Amino acid sequence: MHLDRFLASHDGVITRAQARALGMSDDQIARKVASGEWLRRAPGVFFACAWPWTPAARVRVAAEWVRPVGTLVGLAAAWWLDLGVVSPHPIVVGLPPGCSRRPHAGISVAQRDLRGDRVEHRTLWVASRPLAVLDAAVALGRDGQPFLDRVLQQGLVTLDELRVTQARHLGRRGSAAAHRLLVQAGDHAASEPERHVIALLRRGGITGWVVNASVTLTSGQQYVLDLAFLEVRFALEVDGWAFHSTRDRFVRDRARKRALVADGWVVAEVTWDDLVHRPEQVLDEIRRTLARLRA
Predict the structure, then answer these.
(1) Counting beta carbons within 10 angstroms of the beta carbon of residue 63, is it exposed (0 to 12), middle (13 to 18) or buried (19 or more)?
(2) Sign of the dihedral defined by the CA atoms of residues 239, 241, 244, 247, in that order
(3) pLDDT tens digits for 160-215?
(4) β-strand 234-238 against 266-270: which pairing, if any?
(5) Are 63 and 70 in contact (CB under 8 A)?
(6) What is the pLDDT of residues 227-270, one digit of tens each?
(7) Contacts of 102 (CB under 8 A, 6+ apart)
């Protein structure tokens, strides 16, 4: 492969071994560095200044520096795997126990026994998708639960995959936090917005509701309602993040609502934006609706 094509496909990053494989001598590499055409970003890893210094280049430098035994983990792995993480920082690489390297600028090193949870993705070694999701959810702190909900809702991983992976890595740093996130993800509420509604109802002292209520309409259609007050046929449908919606889902949701209303149900839609910015208004509307239906 021509050098420029290689650099273009590798975010401007190249290792000494890769340059040699392309036919370059150590003297030629040294001249590239001496002229300022290439910058030494880590031991044995160079960056060609003709290319932009992007997050992808930073991640690639870290992964190439610890090749072949090291692995991208945490947020960097989730970012490289396109799991919806906004930024790969802080960039952390995992090294097997007993293997140590001095941390390099902008790169943190962790001793990690990945126990086979290591895959090659776009030429770099990264933690497997379930492990990357768990580690990223822990690293994101308060944003970890919404992140976990999103990847589950999008089908990027399954809850069973996460549980099996978690069991394989008990005792690692962040293991307890990952366990708590999985417990929350596995409760009867399917998503973080639904959990917010439940917390809101409890805080408001509103009772008589059930989660994931299965109902059969007179037409024979069966639906599972997010939250429902069965005795007064009042359903709360909770919408999550807007980018989960598709045209097909939009059409299905509207047909579902029409069928419920035609069968005598009152259906209130609660959005994530409502929960974040207007929780007291939501609570008041639920109270008034219940009072009217119970009267």
Answers:
(1) buried
(2) positive
(3) 899 999 999 988 889 999 988 887 776 544 566 777 888 889 889 999 998 888 89
(4) parallel
(5) yes
(6) 999 999 999 988 754 334 445 666 677 888 899 999 999 999 88
(7) 109
